């Protein structure tokens, strides 16, 4: 165990703490984060794929309890009713491709009496980030087709923006939008399909691609394994270097006739995390220099005599 005593020095302790913390984060945070995103993306893609094959159903059969469940997300549905006039709400910080955009929400009162928030699509800003003029929805009874979506969670510290013009929100949270429009919508919303009454720019469906999350998760697992292995490699290299320096020091030590006790035999030089290894050649020169000085003194004594 004496050969591993250098691991108790501050530099090595700090290095081991960083490596262990990094490995812990890889296995407990980073890898599960990416693998979880892969699982959720795969589940979403499966739901969208099933919706392509399933026939549209009446929205009333899926929102009877007032909530759009996660199992029903992306389901193709149809509903009839009327738009609530003068109740448009704009969703900020959206994009279409790489272009900033706004999405427009309008409450829709179904024939069954429920109020369903409808995402009519997107509009592009005309001047800077100003909201353009939005075409109002039709006022009469209409039939809509679209896909059910789960409500987005509200963002803390991001309240609705009210004032001149249409009210604006940061997320599609029906409860928050209902407060702005004076309605009590279902906890969820309807994303319109193309060519629908009151529809604006059609929001494209997500690409059915699981993305790179699985490979990222596996990479974090690999990093979590490589970090301790790298630490073990450096520890082994340090042990070998110390052993090499100790053997060289023993070879350069002159033999003495005086008896050496057990404590002296077991004594090994200690080094300062690599600094002593760099200073060893200088110490050798000092030893050699001290030996040369003794020889010079003897020669001077033979010639001039020793001082008394």
Quick structural summary:
The protein is α/β, with parallel strands linked by helices and 308 residues long.
Annotation keywords:
single chain, alpha/beta, 5 helices, cell membrane, Surf1/Shy1, transmembrane helix, membrane, Surf1/Surf4
* Largest beta sheet: strand ordering: 2-4-5-8-6
Number of distinct helices? 5
- Report, as a whole number of angstroms, the end-to-end distance: 52 Å
Q: Percent of residues in beta strands?
A: 15-25%
SSE order, one letter for each helix or strand: HEEEEEEEHEHHH
Q: What would you call the shape?
A: elongated
Number of domains: 2
The biggest beta sheet is recorded as: 5 strands, mixed, barrel
- Which class do the helix and strand fractions yield? alpha/beta
What's the number of extended β-strand segments? 8
Compute the CA-based radius of gyration.
38 Å
Query: What is the averaged pLDDT score?
Result: 82
Estimate the helix proportion, in percent: 40-55%
Low-pLDDT parts are 275-279
Main location: membrane
Keywords: Cell membrane, Membrane, Transmembrane, Transmembrane helix
InterPro entries: Surf1/Shy1 (IPR002994), Surf1/Surf4 (IPR045214)
Transmembrane segments: 12-35, 213-235
């Amino acid at each position: 165990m004496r050969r591993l005593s250098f691991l108790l020095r501050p530099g090595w302790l700090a290095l081991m703490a960083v490596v262990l913390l990094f490995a812990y984060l890889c296995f407990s945070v980073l890898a599960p984060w990416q693998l979880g995103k892969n699982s959720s993306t795969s589940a979403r893609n499966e739901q969208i794929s099933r919706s392509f094959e399933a026939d549209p159903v009446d929205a009333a059969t899926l929102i009877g309890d007032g909530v759009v469940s996660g199992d029903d997300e992306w389901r193709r549905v149809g509903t009839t009713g009327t738009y609530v006039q003068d109740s448009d709400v704009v969703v900020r910080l959206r994009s279409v491709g790489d272009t900033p955009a706004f999405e427009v929400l309008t409450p829709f009162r179904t024939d069954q009496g429920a109020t369903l928030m409808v995402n009519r699509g997107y509009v592009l800003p005309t001047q800077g980030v100003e909201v353009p003029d939005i075409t109002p929805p039709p006022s009469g009874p209409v039939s809509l087709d679209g896909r059910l979506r789960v409500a987005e969670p509200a963002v803390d510290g991001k309240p609705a923006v009210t004032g001149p013009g249409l009210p604006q929100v940061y997320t599609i949270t029906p409860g928050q939008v209902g407060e702005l429009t004076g309605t009590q919508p279902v906890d969820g919303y309807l994303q319109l399909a193309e060519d629908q009454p009151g529809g604006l720019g059609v929001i494209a469906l997500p690409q059915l691609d699981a993305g790179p999350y699985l490979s990222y998760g596996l990479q974090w697992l690999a990093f979590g394994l490589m970090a301790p292995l790298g630490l073990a490699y450096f520890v082994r290299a340090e042990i070998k270097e110390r052993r090499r320096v100790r053997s060289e020091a023993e070879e350069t030590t002159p033999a003495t006739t005086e008896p050496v006790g057990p404590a002296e035999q077991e004594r090994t030089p200690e080094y300062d995390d690599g600094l002593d290894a760099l200073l060893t050649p200088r110490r050798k020169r000092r030893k050699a220099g001290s030996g040369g000085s003794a020889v010079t003194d003897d020669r001077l004594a033979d010639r001039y005599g020793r001082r008394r």
